[in-house]
Amino acid sequence: MSCTTCGSKNNCHCSDNCPNKASDITTYDCNTLSSITVPCGSSLCDVLGLLELYITNTASEVSVINDYLSITPHDLLTSGLPTFPLSTIVPALGLLWDSQVTQKQAIVHDDDNAYSPATGIWTCPTTGRYDLAFDIKMSITTGDGWYTSGSAGMIQAALVTGTGEDVYVGNTYSSVNIQQSAYLSGAIGGYQLTAGDTICLKIINTTGTSYSGTTPGDFCRMSIRKV
User: Fold this and answer.
1) Both 109 and 213 in a single domain?
2) Residue after which a domain boundary falls, among 53, 69, 85
3) Per the structure, how many domains does the chain have?
4) Does residue 114 share a domain with residue 214?
5) Residue 8 belongs to a domain
6) pLDDT in tens, 4-19
7) Do 81 and 38 have their domain in common?
8) How many CB atoms sit inside 10 A of residue 74's CB?
9) Among the four 3, 13, 37, 196, which has the fewest Cβ within 10 Å?
10) Contact 139, 209 (CB under 8 A)
């Protein structure tokens, strides 16, 4: 920006506030502006308008990102000891979950207050997709542990509906050799649930050996997270 004449002043500059001097920058010179498309020859007012719109949109996007990052968690984690006595039952055809004792654990955290330690049942608070998981360890330190010679059997564990026979995810442990501890875990991601659906953890024992008490280190856990 320069002045060739400015009244009686010589060598005047922009800071001199020349009364009759307009800016040399009157139209957009077609240089690239990152992320903004500006037509060649646009006025400064047009360019400033596009910049204002870009800044406004960017601020809106940042607001959306902040809202996403501050989403309220919907997590449940319970932990406790397996319920005992867990008597062995005779293997049979058919669905046996209804007759089994629901595992009841203490709450580690429950963001939606949706789990009842008194019943062991979690009730889905809002419709959506959830990650479901459980983890169990049960030990017998006497005799041959879970192995009973001459009898085939297994332990089944599953997250099931609070009433009915629907299984969300399950796992089995087979007692085919001398073994002190039985480990069972299962998980499924993105399972679609509807508000009001119920989930609880149950165990079926058909090993021929009853689980009559806990051993230090045994545990029973359930985890549910909305995704």
Assistant:
1) yes
2) 69
3) 2
4) yes
5) no
6) 444 554 444 444 444 4
7) no
8) 18
9) 37
10) no
The pair of three-digit structure tokens given for residue 170, joined into one six-digit string: 């399950």
Give the model confidence (pLDDT) of 75-108 as tens digits. 999 999 998 888 877 666 666 788 888 999 999 9
* Sign of the four-CA dihedral 77, 82, 87, 92: positive
Give whole-number Cα distances, 24 to 30, 33, 37, 116, 175, in Å: 15, 19, 22, 74, 89
Closest listed residue to residue 130, CA positions, set 177, 79, 178, 198 = 198
Tokens for 220? 């029973």
Residue 28 has pLDDT above 70, yes or no: no
Could you give the CA distance from residue 115 to residue 105 in angstroms, rounded to a whole number? 10
**Terminus-to-terminus CA distance in the chain, angstroms?**
58
Residue 112: CB atoms within 10 A of its CB come to 17
175-196 burial, b for 16+ CB within 10 Å, e for fewer? beeebeebebebeeeebebeee
